[in-house]
Design a protein that fits this description.
The mean pLDDT is 81. The longest helix is centred in the C-terminal third of the chain and has 37 residues. The protein is built from twelve helices and no strands. The chain has a single domain, classed as MetI-like (MetI-like fold, Orthogonal Bundle), CATH 1.10.3720.
């Protein structure tokens, strides 16, 4: 009977079943790369830009296997023709197929953009990391050098260096190789300054964090501290800046080729095709339309990808949502 007392003191109280404890829910750990991809794919313009850039890169790399037409085949009977089945993008004033020349020139323009980005990234990360870890006159001297290069006019300096050294480089590395190396070094050598300032700012902030102090307290050398702890955490903004450097390098190479100081006339980069088409815009607009559209789409796609990477790699933007 409920509420009754036991008959004797030796009587045992009824034993209650222990309450069941709910097990905590297991949550899957998501890798940083997967989380970055989830944030990136929410950016519609960035995903669209990545798809367009992938199509362009696949076209210039795999297109010659689908459309194996020589870039120097001359057919005066078909000169300045518009797009057709025989010539999907039309022909130039010598009857050369523009699709084949666009694919060939696209490989060069994209290679220049990515190679110049690697040069700018290497120099910028090196200068910025040394300035961020050092102090005193080393930091001041490197930042003074960075400000000096930032104050230089980019386009006139590009034109001057190309005019002075292109002939000597061609003698050493050949016509195409010399022009490629010189353009990459010049463009990359004038694009490292924003990366250096960004890396320095990241290092000044990250070297005071708890994980950096813990690494120093455990006896980590400065080189190990930089390579294993600080630099990986500073690469987010650097990747965004590097993606924008690719677009700037493609524009710079196209500008040099359009002005006649880039690759030789027989090498059809996108900028060179525009230069050859400028005198025929009235009766052959297709000649300039397709390379101009390719440059426009490439640069726009890379800029959108940079915006998406900036949002995906910035945790403050994600926490605010």
């Amino acid at each position: 009977m409920a509420g009754s007392t036991p008959v004797s003191l030796s009587a045992e109280a009824p034993v209650r079943a222990p309450a069941t404890v709910a097990e905590p829910r297991k949550t899957r750990s998501i890798s940083p790369a997967l989380e970055t991809w989830r944030r990136f794919r929410r950016h519609v313009l960035a995903v669209t830009g990545a798809i367009v850039l992938l199509i362009l890169v696949s076209g210039v790399l795999l297109g010659p296997y689908v459309w194996p037409v020589a870039i120097n085949d001359i057919d005066f009977a078909a000169k300045l023709q518009g797009p057709s089945l025989n010539h999907p993008l039309g022909t130039d004033d010598l009857g050369q197929d523009l699709l084949a020349r666009m694919m060939y020139g696209g490989r060069i323009s994209l290679a220049v953009g990515f190679a110049a980005m690697l040069v700018a990234l290497f120099v910028g990360v090196l200068v910025g990391s040394v300035a961020g870890m050092a102090s005193g006159w080393v930091d001041a001297a490197l930042m003074w050098l960075t400000d000096l290069f930032l104050a230089l006019p980019t386009l006139p300096l590009l034109l001057l260096v190309m005019y002075l050294f292109r002939d000597s480089m061609k003698k050493v590395l050949g016509v195409e190789g010399g022009a490629f190396v010189l353009i990459v070094v010049v463009i990359g050598g004038l694009r490292w300054m924003p990366v250096a300032r960004l890396v320095r700012a990241q290092f000044l902030s990250l070297r005071e964090k708890e994980f950096a102090e813990a690494a120093r307290s455990l006896g980590a050398r400065p080189s190990r501290e930089v390579i294993r702890h600080i630099l990986p955490n500073a690469m987010g903004p650097v990747i965004v800046a590097a993606s924008l450097d690719v677009a700037a390098a493609i524009i710079a190479e196209s500008t040099l080729s359009f002005l006649g100081l880039g690759f030789p006339p027989d090498i059809p980069t996108w900028g060179r095709i525009l230069f050859d088409a400028k005198d025929n815009l009235d009766f052959a607009p297709h000649w300039a339309l397709f390379p101009g559209t390719a440059i426009f789409l490439t640069v726009l796609s890379i800029n959108y990808i940079g915006d998406g990477l900036r949002d995906a790699l910035d945790p403050r933007k994600v926490l605010g949502k």
